[in-house]
Backbone:
């Protein structure tokens, strides 16, 4: 979706003047325009490829335990498929980082955001049940656009921004609200927040570094390798 469509009726100028880096932006929707960004079928197919034929087909998969997480890429002890399945059934949230590579829709959405923000990527957050484990209150070092694809999530937004080398132990609540499938949430860099999972959900975080970063580079185009052969 075009950036202008996502934030309408705000204009780009209004968004960058009033919200970017300053406060959250919420857009509620009566229809789910994000439903084809990622589906439960795609998630199932992704997890089915864990350790397929002895090879690691899901190197980026992470499992959230609250304050800690399991990373298939970083942990020395690797979970087998049955262990990963148990974590899912027990209510841990799963994260697929760099997930824009999984389909063209997410790739194109990243490309659209990168016209206005720095180089970014998409992380997918999936949970199987109410009160699934999530990260504790934290602040991210990136701009975040959250697409609520499936299910309901309650958000807690705090007044405090994290400053360099300053990790707060106490937070004052700015607002709490429930978002549903089709809703959009923007969270500026370094603003503290938290979530409560209200049932099975899929949320995509499109997040980006500042555009002026010296590491910024534009995304290469998606190439359709396989043409219509019929």
Residues:
């Amino acid at each position: 979706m075009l950036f202008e469509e996502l934030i309408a009726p705000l204009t780009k100028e209004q968004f960058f003047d009033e919200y970017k880096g300053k406060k959250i932006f919420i857009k509620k929707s009566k229809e789910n325009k994000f439903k084809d960004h990622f589906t439960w079928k795609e998630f199932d197919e992704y997890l089915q490829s864990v350790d397929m034929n002895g090879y690691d087909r899901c190197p980026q998969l992470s499992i959230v335990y609250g304050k800690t997480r399991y990373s298939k890429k970083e942990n020395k002890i690797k979970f087998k498929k049955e262990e990963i399945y148990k974590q899912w059934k027990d209510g841990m949230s799963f994260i697929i980082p760099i997930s824009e590579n999984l389909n063209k829709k997410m790739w194109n959405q990243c490309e659209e955001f990168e016209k206005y923000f720095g180089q970014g990527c998409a992380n997918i957050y999936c949970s199987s049940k109410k009160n699934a484990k999530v990260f504790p209150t934290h602040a991210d070092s990136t701009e975040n656009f959250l697409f609520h694809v499936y299910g309901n999530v309650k958000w807690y937004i705090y007044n405090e921004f994290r400053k360099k080398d300053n990790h707060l132990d106490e937070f004052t609540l700015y607002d709490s609200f429930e978002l549903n499938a089709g809703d959009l949430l923007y969270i500026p860099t370094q603003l503290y927040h938290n979530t409560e999972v209200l049932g099975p959900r899929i949320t995509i975080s499109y997040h980006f570094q500042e555009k002026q970063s010296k590491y910024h580079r534009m995304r290469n185009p998606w190439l359709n390798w396989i043409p219509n052969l019929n």
Notes: The first helix runs from residue 3 to 7. The radius of gyration is 18 Å.
